[in-house]
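Lecture notes, structural biology module. Today: joint structure prediction for complexes of two components.
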Amino acid sequence: MTAQTASASGVALRIQNVGMRFGGLWALSDVTFDVERGSVLGLIGPNGSGKTTLMNVISGVYRPTTGAVRFASRRIADVPTHEVCQLGIARTFQIVKPFASLTVRENVAVGAMYGRYGAKRSTRASFERAQELLEIVGLARVADRAASDLTIPDRKRLEVAKALALDPDVLLLDEVMAGLNATEVDEALELLRDVNRRGVTLIVVEHLMKAIVSISTTIVVLAEGKKIAQGAPADVLASPQVIEAYLGSRWVKRQEQLKIIEAERADAARVQPPDAHA
Amino acid sequence: MALLLLVPLGHNGYIEIVFRNILMYAAMAYGWNLIGGYTGYVSFGQVAFFGIGAYCSAVLSAHNIDNLFADVALACVVTALFAVVVGLPVLRLKGHYFAIATLGIGLALSDIVANLDVLGASSGLAVHHVDEPHFYVYYYAMWLVALGSMLGTYFIARSKLGFAFVAIRENEEAAAVLGISATRYKVIAWAISGMMAGSAGAVFAPANGFLDPSIAFSADSNIFPIVMGILGGVGTVAGPFIGALILAGANELLQKYFIKIHTLFFGAMIVLVVLLLSRGLVWLFGLKGGARTWLKSLTAYKA
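The predicted structure, tokenised, for the full assembly:
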């Protein structure tokens, strides 16, 4: 398929047969899916299923062993890491990486200076852009504090603001909600919806099932480096393969056994005469 | 800084040389601060740039060109080129490995020059020099070099460039994801840092009138700027100047009153600075509120 058909059909990002090997271990094998422009793609899977590895491949930090990730007409693997953001792809890190000695505003301003439209921005314009973004993510109140002073939820917000400062078309979010309490998760979801409404395609990795179901338009499930399901959230979660990947084959068997036992009980109840214990 | 303009009016040759050395070390400390303080690559090779700058003047002098502006201009061009050529491989190293590699650069250059007859080999060569009453030109030239290094640092620290340097120091991977080419900006930082040290060397050589490898690539010129940068305040604009003033001044006084054991005192001072003031005076008294920050700096030093 050519890049032309890709853009015509509204595909933002095309992941084609991506495989990634570390020594003898295939962290990813033959993963293929498209990300629709303007959509929110939820990427889920048990621990060690390859989610973060895939994020690293998409953002150009890793070069895939097989296959390719295409964005517009470019192969991400051909682009140096520091130029990926110029294409319009930004990411957050699961383990947040703020520039500790800089203030919150400076952290975001660095993104605005060197991101996609950075070359056209003066230092001052970058700081103004940073201020706007801090207001969007709700960090304006701590703009002048050192990034190292931030609480965990605020650090996650900072990661999002830094990524947004790159003016991306596609934003990869690696567990930005981990460690947040219920209220904070709701706030984060509201923020992500807001970002998505501004036309940014989101790829969200998250363990929190409730959050991912509520925000995603499509969910892709990875298990042991392979894609085992893709579709609308409700369909994907009902899939026996997904349940098995998450809860184990013994759980699935036990559920089946429980069903049989229940059915037998129901049968037995029907057979017994209504006045049996009288 | 402006006060130092008055020094030559005292017509005291000794004092003038002492303060010229302070300015020289200040310029080198600014150079070190840019790569070691702002960009986080602790270089032990700044003396290489100083030596190159000094030999640039010597070569020009041998061709009967004795113009300080020409000396500094040539030194800047040659040190910047040297920084790019050597930096591309060496700046791939991190932490201790980078420090050791840069240490080697200074030592290697010293040995190379000692075997080059064109540059006077190990016996050295004379550099064109004017004496009193025009001796003060070297003082003012050095003052300009130090001022240039300070202003350069001031403007870089506030520019996009400065933020790229700090981002690289804090986290290279995160910087790359934000669109900063680490290799490119590290080399730029090192080239500018080399130009500062090189300019200082270019003025030093004619002021001294003589140059050999042990003067051009001396251990003092290598270690002093680093300790001054640390004492004054790593990654700050005022730090290197304050550090140079205090340390070079102290060194001079120790030499005057304890001629036999001054290096012992001086060594102890360096150890104390690194132990107790690893983030420097500017951080101690300046931006981040006194004693608590200082106590924190004792336990948690990050180069």
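Point to remember: Residues 60 and 79 of chain A are 7 Å apart (CA to CA).
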